[in-house]
Design goal:
The chain is an alpha+beta fold and 410 residues long. It folds into 3 domains: 2-58 and 279-408, no CATH class; 64-106 and 237-270, no CATH class; 111-231, no CATH class. It has 13 helices and 10 strands. It has helices spanning 2-22, 25-60, 81-84, 94-101, 153-157, 167-174, 218-225, 242-256, 272-315, 317-325, 330-363, 373-399, 403-408, and strands at 67-71, 107-120, 123-132, 145-148, 162-165, 183-186, 189-197, 213-217, 230-236, 268-270. It has a 6-stranded mixed barrel. It is elongated.
Amino acid sequence: MERFLKMNNIFQNIAIGLRAIKSNPTRVFLTSLGLTIGIFTVSIITAGVSSIDKEFEKSMAYYGNDKLYVSTWPWSFNFDWWKYRNRPRIEEDNLQYITQYSQYIDDVSLRKTSWIRGSYGNTASWLQINGVYPSYQDMLSGTKIENGRFFSQNEWDLQRRVIIVGATVRDGFFDGQDPIGKTIRLGGVSFEVIGELKKQGMGMVPGGTLDNLVIMPSTTFKRILTRWGFDELVLKTRPEQMAIAKEEAEMIMRVARKLKPDEENNFAVNSADAYKQQFDSLKIAIAGVGFLVTGISLIVSAIGIMNVMFVSVKERTKEIGLRKAMGATSRNILVQFLSEAVTISIIGGLAGIILVKLLTLALASFLPVSFDLLLIFYTFLVCVFIGITAGMIPARNAASLNPIDALRHE
């Protein structure tokens, strides 16, 4: 019974604090505005970074977490172009060294890349062409053959004019029609479409989608279309062996290139980790700036709540004295003013959450912004913490007032 009375007393004090807030809506709005901005900022940043993470992982599926790419250029946003421009081209013969000496590479393919003007009927466009081995079918990441088939070893040996098209090429040339069996002209040469890839969508990294590509046998690419272009070796391994496979591939390439121990590599062994490391650095920078702005906003909000609570204590000194004279304890007064501070904080936080929700709904059709429900819980805890922290000193001052002095206050 005694415990019930204590709980009832606490709820009564909270109700008194809420009534005081209701009587000053303008003050509450202005006080909680800074907290609303802070919570809105941190929520947007968190939701944005989370969505970017998902889109980045989706786009990285193009490269895969089980493949290495040996090429002339490193995958980096910052490199000295003049240093790498004169490096020797990647040769197909290098694959023989890798298949002969590697213990961790399970499959290999050459990938020749160039850009050629393609046409079908009255539609023409520049297309990115990849010439690959038949084994490349098992090395596709993030997509698969959705209709038709991949070219066979026999077609590769005989240099057949067959191609597999990405979803963007299919939609641009065939306008939703089945492309299998139709003919596209590439560089003035006719090619039969034998397969199409499942749509991936645009990626966040350079070349992070197969939608814009046309894939053909590398032998056909080399004989019919062009001997020029960008060549690289695609090496498949196991995800848990990526690090050691990368070191092994580098050593084998040095042997194949006959490099001396003191000579630098004249090639690059790349993997999806290169983009991930750079992306993580960029993400940390964005999040850091956002959280700095949020931190400043929350600190200012806490100071604002504290000042408002000091003013509230000052204005209601007689009320405090009267309540104490009628039997209210210091704890009752403390709970009353703390509940006011916490409520103001929660109002500001909820307003920020509502704004974020409205914004994500508005952007849902344009950007893949997700709203984490767990964020609401964490935001609620942050608001409660700020309210308790900012309201503790004013509430303690109110609780420690002498009732006689408080009743005499003018």
